[in-house]
Amino acid sequence: MSTLAVVSRSFAALCFLAAALAQAQSYPVKPVRLVVPFPPGGATDLVARTLAQKVTESWKQQVVVENRAGAGGNIGADAVAKSAPDGYSLLLNIQGQSISASLYRKLPFDAIKDFTPIVQLTSSYLVLVGHPRLPGSVKEIIAMAKAQPGKLNFGSTGLGAPPHLTAELFNSVAGTRIVHIPYKGDAPLTPALLTDEVQLAFLPLSAALQHVRSGKLRALGVTGPKRGAALPEVPTLVESGMREFDIAGWIGIFGPGNLPRDIVAQVRGEFIKAIRLPDVMEKWPGWGYEPVGGTPEEFGAKYRSDIDVFAKIIRDAKVPLVE
Questions:
Q1: Per-residue model confidence as pLDDT tens digits over 268-308
Q2: What is the CATH number of the domain that holds 284?
Q3: Which of 40, 221, 225, 287 has the largest CB neighbor count within 10 A?
Q4: Domain enclosing residue 285, as ranges
Q5: Peptide bond into 85 cis (omega under 30)
Q6: Could you tell me if residue 19 is inside a domain?
Q7: What's the predicted TM-score (pTM) here?
Q8: Ranges assigned E (strand) in 50-165
């Protein structure tokens, strides 16, 4: 290669690097779209709008929440996966994204290659609740289920939703045959539990807390590595001998695949500041979340681990795949 060619290529590379650096330093220069793959008004949407407002105030540039619901969150996720990797389309999603990778027979995106994990915003746990007439411990529930196979049932918020798959994991670990009954969301499931139409369910803290405190439902255990701050008296399922339940839900921020590292760092930094603001910190307990933060690498590792965990649950429980 001639000296002129080497110089030309080096100059071109420097120009590209300078342009990329300039873009990162000036980012954002226009509104940023934050896609929420669920309808307005839910818990995830509330978190998104709260944080979007805080980041808007810090950046002095609008962060616009765009609700793109449907197909279990896949429509919104696909919109971001197919966006330019320039930082102007971000995705705020939940643990369900790691479930979709195995639950759907065919996805319009690659669940790993088409996304850049940026930051885990929150951690949350599910509460195993039962009707008050049931025994008061996980070990007693397991003994009852084994003595009367097929008599107890689990309600869930829908086929393939985290409460369903967590219940299937419970059956697998405990060696029980508790029957799954799907409902269409929390709204019909909670009354079914209160009236003993179904006996057991894994509920988000936000759906379970008031009924547990009123005595209308009994909290038997929580998922995750530690007891929840809102229910410190309730043991983890790990404490009850079910070490496979060292899992927790999350909300996180993703970008399209191949998002530049400098932009990843800027987005991560702003959202970590937002989740730790005093007026936001005071909201987390009531919403049933704990703020996390952490690095993109840590979030990416958790995301990939959850994909593997839920793939095994779906496979072992023979959960029907969604077409």
A1: 999 999 999 999 999 998 888 999 999 999 999 999 999 99
A2: 3.40.190.150
A3: 221
A4: 30-124+248-316
A5: no
A6: no
A7: 0.87
A8: 63-67, 89-94, 115-124, 126-130, 153-156
